[in-house]
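Database export, one record per block. Field names are fixed; values are copied verbatim from the stored entry.
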Amino acid sequence: MGGREVYGFGGFTLDASERRFSQSGQDISLAPKAFDVLLTLVRHRGQLVTKRELLETVWPESFVEEGILAVHISALRKTLGNGEGEQAYIETVSRAGYRFAGAVTRRDDPADAARNPKVYELFGRGRRFLLSHSMFDTPKAVEAFEAAVELDPSYGAAHAGLALAYCAQASLRAVPPSEAYGKAKTAALRALAMDPGCTDAQAALGAVLFFSEWNWTAAERSLLRALELNQNHTETYLLYGQLLEALGRLEEGLAMKQKALERDPDSPLVHLQISMSYWHQRRYEEAIEWANRTLALDARHPHAREHLAGAYLKKGDFDRYLAENIRHAEIHGVPATAFEPVKQAYSTEGLTGVRKLFLRRVAQQPDAFPVMQLAVFCGEVGNRDAAFKHLEQGIENHDPGLVHLGVAPQWDSLRDDARFGHCLERMGLGGLLQNAH
C-alpha cells in the first residue's frame, strides 16, 4: 500500500493524508471536526459507528454533548446530497449512531481516480445485497461483484466483496460449500495481494480457514488481523464469536457477538447468532427469545424458525416444534398437506411414531437427507453405529456444519462414546477443547 490514504465515492475524493475534500477536482471546505466525522464514517463504510465511538475518535480529549454530532452530520448531508438512487450517503441508525452507506474505494494509487465509475456502482450494489444477509439477495451480490471484477480485475475491493459473497452462499448452502469456499479463498487471496490491509478479504479468508479447512489457529490469526484493521466490522465479530465457541470458549464467543450487536442492532443475522450462542450453552429459553427477535426483524429468515423449532424440541415441547416446522415450510411454499403424515404419526404414537416415519423415508430415499441430519437422528434413536458412520462421512467431506461438534447439544447423545473423542481428534479439536476448560 502507498503512503497516502485517499477515498473515493460518487464524484467525491477524501484525502486523509492531505486533509482535502473535493468533488470533480474542486476543493470543498469542511469544518475540521466535520472532516474528521466524515473520515471516521468512511473508514468504517458499511458498518455502524456508534455515537460514543464518534465522540471518542473526533474529540478524544474533550467532553462534548452528543448534539454536536447531529450538527456536523446535518452539515455533511447538505454538502454530500444523496448517493445513487437517492439513497443518503450517511444513514442514521436509530438510538445507536451512523453508517456510511455509499460505495467507497480506497485510492492509495492516484491511478485509481481514473477507474470506470460503473465499477464503483457495481461494487456498491453488491455490498448492499451482501449486507442484507438474505438467501434471496446473496446471488445478486455475487453477480454484482463478479461484474465489477470482470470490468476491472485490478479492483481489490471487488475481489474482497466477492469472497464474502461466496462465503455467504456457502453458509446458506445455496452452493455446495466446498465449491463456494474454494472460490472464496481464491478471491480473498487476490484481494490481499492487491491490498494487504483489506478487512473484508481478511474476514473472508478467516471464514474459509474456519469453516472449510478447520485450520483453527490460522483462522483466529486472520480474524484478529481483520479486527485490527477495522474495529467496527460486524461480520468479523460474528465469525470470531463462532470460532471461539467452536473451541469451547462459549462466554467469549457470546461477548464477540454482543459487540456485533452494538454495531448493527437491526441485523437479523446478529440476533440469530446470539440465539445460537445460547443454544450452545443449553440456555434454551434465551435461545428461543433471540430466535423470535430474529423473526421479528425478518419473518422469512431461512434458518431462524428451524432453529426455534430445534430449541422447542430440546425443551420437550414437540407440539411447538411441529408447529414451527409447518409454519417455516408454508412460508417457503410447501403446502400444509405435506405434513399430514407427520401429524398422523404423532397423534397415533407420539414422537416414536414420527421417528418411525422418518426411518421409512430414509430407507426409501437415503440420498435425500444430509449426512449430518442422519447422524443426529441415528444418535437420538440409539443407533450409534449408523450415527458414527454418517458422522465420519461428514468429517471426511469437511462439512462446515460440523465446526461446533465439540459444543453443540444435538451431539449430546454420542458424547460418552469413545468414538466421539476420535472424531474430535480428526478435526483437530480434541486438545483445543481440553485447553478451553
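Remark 1: The chain is about 60% helix and 5% strand.
Remark 2: The radius of gyration is 24 Å.
End of record.
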